[in-house]
Amino acid sequence: MRRFAVIGLGHFGSSAARKLYEDGHDVIAIDINKNRVQDIKESSSQAIVADVSERETLEAIGINDVDVVIISLGEKLDASILVTLYLKEMGIKEIVVKAITDDHAKILKILGATDVVFPEKDMAIRVAERLSSPTVLDQIEFMEGYSVVEIEAPKSFHGADLISADIRNRYGLSVILIRKKGEGGEVLVTPKATDKIEEGDILVLLGEDANIEKFKAVS
Question: Taking 90 as the threshold, does the pLDDT of residue 43 lie above it?
């Protein structure tokens, strides 16, 4: 179990706090808004009303004892920058910050944020990619330059087993699993070379983004 502090309980912050708490982690939820703090009391280990613009407040809360701090202060760019600086100086090893603009993100990184997220931008990109490539059901960045993609099996692969499809050598992608067609269909985790790809199957692939883009063009 890890210990988290979530500063700012808007939609992103409160959702993150609730999920972490549901997963069994110790979560301190912090916001200056009393109503937001009240709403999350049952879904956090500790809910605190506080103005974190002062370093002394962070120290009094016991922020030094947490493993990860998530900062989600909405449009308050100056506040998120200041809090990031305080946390870095206090020795917090993992600082995740919600950014508003690219320049905001650059400043946060310079000041010590270990991870900068753009929830709205990332979601918009995922929706746009799904709409532009209807066979792509979802795509998640695995690490820089690599992603995991969930994609409907191209027609040219229907009836082929993994040996003849040869996706690894032809496209540089690993087939992590195959979800067989139909609701409640069988899921083949680390499928065998003899497993067949049928019409309606969903392939989950891992590889370089450039190779994934090539595979998306396969019909």
Answer: yes
